[in-house]
Amino acid sequence: MQRTSSSFRIAIDLNIYDLTTLNNYLYWFELGMFHSTIEIKGVEYAYGAHDMPTSGIFQVEPRSCPGFMFRRSILLGTTDLSPIEIYDLMEDLASQYTGDAYNMISPKTLCLPESLQVAMVQQPLEYHSSEDL
């Protein structure tokens, strides 16, 4: 992907959601069940399941992913990709993240945020303990 020569930077946030209210208790044992999304310029991108071999990536209003309880956001960094380049990146990733391949206990469910982080910020995603959540 070719970068444009622009001076603007767009924040990239990792949004964390609780899958269950049990997280309020599991937190004390540094455990929990979470869903994560990426928020870029007022659009939140998530990966989820469906029965078709088409993209499982979808967009939602920031901090309101259906079926989950918003916990917090973590700033991952900024990018100089333009909105068009971000859209193109999401289109490229769509074929890799199909709805029929989604598995809640597979490491691939965290790979969408990591793929976006590496592509846009040019550094790997830093993993946080549940203490940070």
From TrEMBL:
Keywords: Hydrolase, Protease. Residues 10-116 form the PPPDE domain. One of its GO terms (biological process) is proteolysis. Gene3D superfamilies: PPPDE domains. SMART domains: DUF862. It comes from the Eukaryota. GO terms for molecular function: deubiquitinase activity. Belongs to the DeSI family. This is PPPDE domain-containing protein. It comes from Ceratopteris richardii (Triangle waterfern).
